[in-house]
TrEMBL record:
Protein known as: GCN5-related N-acetyltransferase Rv2170-like domain-containing protein
Domain GCN5-related N-acetyltransferase Rv2170-like: 243-335
InterPro entries: Acyl-CoA_N-acyltransferase, Acyl_CoA_acyltransferase, GCN5-like_dom
Superkingdom in the source lineage: Eukaryota
Length: 349
């Protein structure tokens, strides 16, 4: 690319310069704005950018930033953003060489950081990963795992592999070109549409049908939440997330719920089968955004933003997002990248 490797700098979560750069890039930077502000941050987390945190620094045109917390494994431990994701950055739809260098510089730097130990609460997940290895012993470029809880956990046996959340499809292409993307886990063939919502345009929260009430999800509800999805989310993490639930007044049973993910996205939206078709999912989604999103991702014009990532083909969730006024704006993926293959990528890219 003709670009030297960029220096990577640690930023505090409150870094005014990084938050300014992300704010200028809304709504496209929304994942990283939310993740850097979320209180669920361990001592081993790193907030990184290709510019220093000094107030005297001018934000460059081309830059990249990341949130990395390896101790979150097997949950998502990496979020990436680069300035080229903003459509006005360049007339070309191809990432500019300098932004590409910024992304690979970040990944090269991450490969030098120590891997923290797995949190004890995730030891059972490690055992399930070992069981998955017995069932599917082979790895390689032509191996694909079926989508099960075990396939989400398998990377725990590979300490150098990280899960990148809701990452722009062009960053995935850059990582794939550099030989970093692992394909055993459903990744590049499992595309998601990112929906953006202006909070001010969301519909008003509707009244619930008779016999139901609003509430927050409680610890005793979380076993049911976990049972309704193959995506592993620990009780430890779920308890740190903002939530909205709908409960039967007579039984106190949760019949619909959603959470605001660590990156602010609509997470684990679910309605029990016997209550579907009544508009409850839409009401739950609108309420969680209206209750918790207004102050967290606000652009320079004062617009508060919310977002959701929906797998292509998930007609029900796409319908909910469209009913809230959202449109699919960006293609994103959840993928695994192997930091052990990083080396000094940006020098040779």
């Amino acid at each position: 690319m003709g670009e030297e490797i960029m220096e990577v700098h640690e930023h505090p979560a409150t870094s005014p310069l990084l938050q300014k750069a992300l704010k200028q890039s809304l709504p496209y930077s929304i994942n990283l704005i939310y993740r850097t502000q979320h209180p669920n941050r361990t001592p081993t987390a790193h907030i990184l950018a290709t510019f220093p945190p000094s107030p005297a620094t001018t934000i460059p045109k081309c830059w990249a930033a990341a949130y990395l917390d390896r101790s979150m494994r097997p949950e998502t431990d990496l979020w990436l953003f680069s300035a080229f994701e903003v459509p006005s950055h360049s007339p070309s739809t191809i990432p500019c060489p300098t932004c590409k260098t910024a992304i690979l510089s970040l990944i090269t730097h991450m490969s030098t950081l120590p891997t923290p130990p797995l949190h004890p609460s995730n030891f059972p997940a490690l055992e399930r990963a070992k069981e998955h290895e017995k069932q599917y012993p082979d790895l390689g470029p032509n191996i694909r795992f079926p989508l099960t809880t075990g396939s989400y956990l398998r990377h725990l046996l590979l300490p150098g592999v990280v899960t990148v959340g809701a990452v722009n499809h062009q960053i995935v292409d850059i990582c794939a070109e550099a030989g970093l993307v692992r394909d055993e886990f459903p990744g590049r063939e499992a595309k998601l549409n990112k929906f953006f919502f202006k909070v001010s345009n969301l519909p008003q929260t509707r009244e619930l049908p008779q016999g139901l009430r609003w509430g927050e999800m409680r610890e005793e509800d979380l076993a049911t939440v976990q049972a309704r999805t193959s995506i592993p989310r620990s009780v430890r993490t779920l308890m740190t997330l903002k939530s909205v639930g709908v409960f039967e007044e007579a039984t106190d049973k949760a019949i619909a719920w959603t959470f605001l993910g660590l990156d602010g996205s609509l997470t684990t939206l679910h309605t029990e089968e016997e209550y579907r078709g009544k508009g409850i999912a839409k009401a739950v989604a609108a309420k969680i955004f209206r209750d918790y999103a207004p102050e967290l991702a606000v652009d320079e014009e004062g617009n508060a933003w919310a977002h959701a990532d929906v797998y292509e083909g998930n007609v029900q969730s796409e319908s909910v997002c469209r009913s809230l006024g959202g449109q699919p704006e960006v293609k994103v993926f959840w993928v695994r990248i192997d930091l052990t293959n990083a080396g000094t990528l940006s020098k040779d890219a």
